Amino acid sequence: MFIALSTFEIANDMAPEVKEAFVKRPGLVNDAPGFVRLDVLSPKDNQNEIWMMTFWTDEESYNVWYKNHMRESHQGVPKGLKLVPHSPKVRFFDHVTA
Prior knowledge:
The protein is α+β, with helices and mostly antiparallel strands. The chain has one domain: Alpha-Beta Plaits (2-Layer Sandwich). It has helices spanning 15-23, 59-73, and strands at residues 2-9, 35-41, 49-56, 89-94. A 4-stranded antiparallel beta sheet has the order 2-3-1-4. The longest helix is centred in the last third of the chain and has 15 residues, at 59-73. The N and C termini lie close together (11 Å). Keywords: Monooxygenase, Oxidoreductase. Residues 2-93 form the ABM domain.
């Protein structure tokens, strides 16, 4: 399994709106070939930080989805959202065991 972890920090007190957008997301990625699940986390020590983990059967499935659908997946971002500069990061992982 392959995991993409995206992290970012909200700069303008819109964390509740961002979290609600994830709860109500349209699920566009759900039917993508190779998609397994999406987990969204927010650390207790920084509620303005969001960690989004997507789980895939393989890296190629993620790459195909990213290339073809990344723009539409961000359509639900709340208007006016500002991020802490340089906070968005993406890291990739091989899933070893659960």
